[in-house]
Amino acid sequence: MADDETGVDLHFAGRRIRAQTADTFLQKLKGLRFADSGRMFFRFDSPTRTTVDTIFVRDVQYLYFFDGDRTLVEQAELTPNRFYRPSHSYRYLLETFEDLGVETGERLEIVDE
C-alpha cells in the first residue's frame, strides 16, 4: 500500500485483514483496476445494490458484500471483464484477489473504528 493511500484493519473470518479504503467517488471508481494483488474496502452512506465490474482487472476477484450490521449477505467470484449486480443491498464491500473461504452470515469487525 502506498504511503498516500488510506487503509483499514478488518477482523473477518478469524483473521485480521489490512485493506485500502475507497471513500471518494474516484477511489470507488478505480477500485482494484490494473492491480494484481491487494484488498479494497468500500463504505457506502446508505444501502445500495450498485453493480460491480471487473473491467481492467487482470485476475479473478472475490467480492464480499456486507449489510449495515456488517453481516456477510452475499459473495461472488468474478472473472475479468464482467459485471455483477448483487441480489442483496449492502453497505460495505470487500474486494480481494483471494478466496477467504467464508460463509454467508459471518460478521465483519472494523478494527480502526
From TrEMBL:
Domain of life of the organism encoding this protein: Archaea
Name listed for the protein in its UniProt record: DUF192 domain-containing protein
